[in-house]
Write a structure and sequence with these properties.
rod-shaped; 1 helix; Complement Module, domain 1; single chain; Sushi/SCR/CCP_sf; Immunoglobulin-like; mainly beta; 4-stranded antiparallel sheet
């Protein structure tokens, strides 16, 4: 498996009064329960208990009072994608420094490890084969720009779309990539390991 690592560091000096942290890893998946049930490409719909909450709360490494009565804060963490596979493509690091009893807030919102990529369960076609380019996401799935090409065994001819591109987390017919947006069709898209319109190898 491809493993990705991200390190996050920040340092702030001269804070006053003493700041309070609000940091954590967060599940970004949103939407109604009905929408989540309908989304078959969702990798983490079973993790509903995490929706709207931190996956893990994180504290500052150091909050130190300085001689001038201001505060110095620091934070460093190293994260590995392999530890958060159930949240692939939907995880972010958020950390805000807040001053209690005020509206002051500063911080970061960073998407962790990139998008989830496209499904890798490629349906087979009788008397045919496929080739998939090797580009991978941090979650070990085909990433945007990956190409999938179908072919047929000897004496067979392919009927239907032969080439697909991973774009925005979905396999889309490569022939549609050059069409105006309003002309694009998802009829040949691959979803959840099956075709919406399956190519056929025929004699």
């Amino acid at each position: 498996m491809i493993d990705c690592e991200e390190s996050i560091t920040f340092f702030c000096r001269g804070m006053f009064p003493k700041p309070s942290p609000a940091c954590g890893l967060y599940n970004d998946l949103t939407g109604t329960k009905k929408q989540r049930r309908a989304d078959k490409s969702c990798f983490i719909c079973a993790q509903l208990k995490h929706l709207g909450t931190y996956i893990k709360a994180l504290s500052f490494d150091r909050v130190e009072k300085r001689p001038d009565d201001t505060y110095e804060v620091s934070f460093f963490r190293r994260f590995f994608a392999r530890d958060y596979l159930e949240f692939r493509g939907h995880m972010s690091f958020r950390c805000y420094i807040i001053i209690v009893s005020t509206t002051w807030r500063r911080g970061v919102h960073h998407k962790m490890f990139g998008d989830a990529g496209c499904v890798e369960k490629i349906p087979e076609i009788p008397n045919g084969y496929y080739n998939l380019t090797p580009e991978r996401t941090c979650w070990n799935t085909p990433r945007d720009g990956s190409r999938l090409a179908f072919g047929c065994n000897e004496n067979y001819e392919l009927v239907g779309e032969s080439s697909f591109v991973c774009a925005d987390g979905s396999w889309k017919p490569e022939s549609n990539q050059t069409l105006p947006h309003w002309m694009e069709s998802s009829d040949s898209a691959i979803s959840d390991g099956s075709f919406k319109r399956q190519p056929v190898c025929s004699k």
